[in-house]
Known about the structure:
Distance between the termini: 47 Å
Number of helices: 10
Radius of gyration: 17 Å
Largest sheet: 7 strands, mixed
Helix content: 40-55%
Shape: globular
Amino acid sequence: MFDEVAERYDLSNDVLSLGQSRLWRRRLIEALNMAPGERLLDLAAGTGTSTEPFHDAGVEAVACDFSTGMLEVGRRRRPDMTFVQGDAMELPFEDASFDAVTISFGLRNIVDHRRALEEMFRVTAPGGRLAVMEFSDPTFRPFNVVYNEYLMRALPAAARVVSSNPEAYVYLAESIRAWPNQDELAADIAQAGFEQIRYRNLTGGIVAIHYGLKPAASAAEAR
């Protein structure tokens, strides 16, 4: 499905989010506060749009995605960036390989998102951080009703205009409605081993960024 929408995926996201996707990504960059030379794993990176700002700021960023079609578009667009094909439930990276791991709008597409969170914990270095940006539950109840109507009616209709595979956006709407709310996802992240978990609602809770830290190595582990 993602192979089929790869060519116009970024354009579709901009249109269907009413331009908000760029703002949301800026907030994620601020949350991670990466320094040049640090290593970042960007999962479900698609064509590398979410990875690009980190790479351009001097971060050693790896864009990883399950879809070869997405990666092909990304490599063609940004041949200077690092793209790796990989399954988030069985990542092709060594333990403690990255200073930070992030995933944007992709965790809900993984068959077992809890297993994926465990893999993210494994490849994060002690003291490293995690940032998950995902669709969530609007916090204002009347707006929640309007939002769900948009998901199930307007979003698929708009996708027929801008997307090469509008049926994919029916799945998108359904997956958002079925996704855990902010507190439930925070609990899943804690279960994977991360600590100091907090989240920030964006655009009234349509999107939330969850942030967590991997505990620093103990003195015994450091030896």
